[in-house]
Amino acid sequence: IIDETHTISVGPGGMTADLGLKPDFLTIGKAIAGGIPTGTFGMTQAIAESIKSMVELEIIDTGGIGGTLAGNALSLASMRATLTQVLTQENFVHMIDLGTRWSDGVDAAIQEFNLPWTCNRLGARGEYMFGKVAPITGADANDAGDFELEQYIHLRMLNDGFLITPFHNMALMCPDTTAADVDAHTKAFHTMCAELVS
Q1: Percent of the chain with pLDDT over 90
Q2: Chain-centroid distance, C-alpha 60
């Protein structure tokens, strides 16, 4: 089972395509619809037949698959627009270049101020982590959390015009992101780091 919700940022097809994987079951959440609540899944024919043999037609809509939240006209239109206009090879070249530039700027400030942090990179996304090495497990990621520091950074960066992803410190580049946007973040992040250590 592969969930591409957070790994689609590496390119069309996500890590599944990037690594040439052949999953039995694949899922992806709202990233496939540009953030609109939805989700989709795919599976091998054998798994589909197994599920089909266990699902009773009378309860199919109450089984938690589809329904009004994820299977509505807005979600479907958002998926079509995202797949045809956002998650394209051409856009990924641009977004990954900017994701690398963003992460390089974060890493430069971390190194300059000798902070015990790292920057996690995954294609068009980057994330500051409060640990000297990138986490490998969920427990490692949890241990790299610092609630008060995150609250400060989120507020400080918001005051400079940057809304960092809640619950972690991630930025995801989009087709409309510019090098000037990334450089402005790098400058604000550098200033924030300088203030933290002064």
Answers
A1: 75
A2: 31
CATH 3.90.1150.10 fits 89-197, yes or no: yes
Is 139 in a helix, a strand, or coil?
helix
Angle at 187 between CA 178 and CA 162, to 5 degrees: 65
**Dist. CA 183–CA 143, nearest whole Å:** 30
Strands 169-172 and 2-3: unpaired
Residue 95 has pLDDT above 80, yes or no: yes
The answer to whether 99 and 123 have CB atoms below 8 angstroms apart is yes
d(CA 110, CA 119): 9
pLDDT digits 0-9 by tens, 11-26: 999 999 999 999 999 9
As a whole number of angstroms, the distance between CA 144 and CA 92 comes to 29
Task: Tokens for 9, please give them.
Answer: 């940022």
| Domain extents in the chain | 2-85, 89-197
Strands (E), the chain: 2-3, 25-28, 40-43, 118-122, 125-129, 169-172
- What token pair was written down for 74? 């807005």
Residue 40's beta-bridge partner residues?
Answer: 28
